[in-house]
Amino acid sequence: MTQAGTLGWLAWLETTAAATAMRQSLWLYPIVEILHIIGFVVLVGSAAMFDLRLLGLSRQLPVTGMEHHLLPWARASVLLIVPTGALMFVAHATEFAGNPAFRLKLILLVAAVLNAAAFHLRPFRRVAAWDHNARAPLAARFAAGLSLMLWTGVIACGRLLAYF
Fold this sequence. Notes:
The protein has about 160 residues and is an all-alpha fold. It has helices at about 5-15, 15-25, 30-55, 65-90, 95, 100-120, 140-160. The chain has one domain (about 5-164). Helix content is about 75%, strand content about 0%.
């Protein structure tokens, strides 16, 4: 798609009923933004608790038990994050598309998802060997540290959107 085509598509998004409502309503944008933040708190909070366990905190807690408890919360939060993020994006599509903080946020978000997928495809498959009262393998600890850094970056970029 050409730059003119992309800009036309983004401008069209801003004319949709949802985008117009987001910009014109006194309360809609702040409510959607608060819901987006709550979703991120649940997602990143769940991920951080799991990552800290992988890094060695609370070794008495089984990794699989934490995964069974925290992963559903993280997945459920995506059901809040995606639509609220989309609503905020369509309200300011042309502005956000050119914002370096927004672009970096998306890159970090994709990297965080890929990191989680790689963790579940590799080190987590052998979790039985290090599930309880054991040190997680280096690959799991690396993924946990990377996860904490990536999610921190996503949050920071989300906050920096207002300044770029």
